[in-house]
Design brief:
Blueprint: H1 23-34, H2 45-51, H3 56-86, H4 90-117, H5 120-131, H6 134-147, H7 152-164, H8 168-179, H9 184-211, H10 218-238, H11 249-294, H12 298-302
Helix pairs in contact: 1-4, 1-9, 3-4, 3-5, 3-6, 3-7, 4-9, 6-10, 7-9, 7-10, 7-11, 8-9, 9-11, 10-11
Family: Belongs to the ribonucleoside diphosphate reductase small chain family.
Protein name: ribonucleoside-diphosphate reductase
GO molecular function: ribonucleoside-diphosphate reductase activity, thioredoxin disulfide as acceptor
């Protein structure tokens, strides 16, 4: 498959990025380049003051959210690397190389916020609690399963799914906290990271829809997405103490289901149009072939035997 897949084929004749051959991919790269940021831009001084006004329940909730997101992030960079190593479009490699740098920035930003608000003992207690949740092992197994798939299409779908599903429930709760006017530095951080993840997700779906020839069934895509949604639902139901901030489990699970449906639609949009066009093209070719067989040429008629009973 890799020898036939243009996205994975060696580009030994391309020594520099110019002239750009895949303008849509290059435009996506320039978009994330324009949004590049560093952890030095985060101001958490107001957060330290606001922290004193929070009750113990909200502090516990934020500790759980920060640790959960850091826990989910630790394996996602490995998934990005496995995809990046396979791709040989220079434009796409530029995007994915920068994406890896941005993911490192995200981890640094998470850690900075966590260390500013919680001591080591508090962090260790929450991380230990997360490791003991069955959903944590299920998520790691999911990442290993799909990142090690022999199908590159499945790897791409998994990467887009990870960016769309894992930790998005945590982001939703952070946005809820933002609407309450609490912890502005942390909220700004997650708003920025949310934007980055959306760009990464959209780029992966773009590669899948517009630059991949490998066929993959709707059922397989739904399986990959559905497994991730089920895992994230378990985190919501069994780990996040939503009652502490007045959020309902049903609201977050419905949000996750919506994200899953939206991702499936985005992945299949252009590919469905391609398949429809290909089906029409095949039908036209078949009809033309049938027509040529039933409507013989003069040369064909000359081959007909003249020995008849008439």
């Amino acid at each position: 498959m890799s020898k036939q897949e243009p996205l994975l084929r060696d580009n030994k004749d391309r020594f520099v990025i110019f002239p750009v051959k895949h303008n849509d991919i290059w435009d996506a790269y320039k978009a994330i380049e324009a949004n590049f940021w560093t952890s030095g831009q985060i101001d958490i001084q107001k957060d330290l003051l606001a922290w004193q006004e929070l009750n113990d329940e909200k502090r516990l909730f934020l500790n759980k959210i920060l640790c959960l997101i850091l826990s989910s992030e630790k394996n996602l960079s490995g998934l990005t690397r496995k995809v990046s190593k396979k791709i040989n479009f220079p434009e796409a490699r530029s995007f994915l190389d920068l994406q890896l740098v941005m993911e490192n920035t995200h981890t640094e930003a998470y850690s900075m916020c966590l260390n500013s608000l919680f001591n080591t003992t508090q962090q260790e207690e929450i991380f230990k609690e997360i490791e003991e949740i069955p959903a944590t092992a299920a998520r790691e197994e999911w990442i290993q399963k799909w990142s090690n798939s022999t199908s590159f299409a499945e790897k791409l779908v998994a990467l887009a799914t990870a960016k769309s599903i894992f930790s998005y429930s945590s982001f939703a709760t952070i946005f809820w906290i933002k609407n309450c006017g609490l912890i502005p530095g942390l909220c700004y951080t997650y708003e920025t990271i949310y934007r980055d993840k959306a760009l990464h997700r959209d780029f992966t779906t773009q590669l899948f829809r517009d630059h991949l020839l490998e066929e993959i069934s709707d059922k397989k895509i739904q399986q990959i997405i559905g497994e991730a949604v089920a895992i994230e639902k378990e985190f919501i139901a069994k780990y996040l103490p939503l009652d502490l901030i007045g959020l309902k489990t049903k609201s977050l699970t419905e949000y996750l289901e919506y994200e899953g449906r939206r991702l499936f639609t985005d992945l299949m949009l252009n590919r469905s149009l391609k398949e429809e066009h290909l089906a029409k093209e095949n039908l036209v070719n078949k009809r033309a072939k049938d027509f040529s067989q039933t409507n013989k040429t003069d040369k064909d008629f000359n081959k007909i035997s003249k020995k008849t009973d008439l």
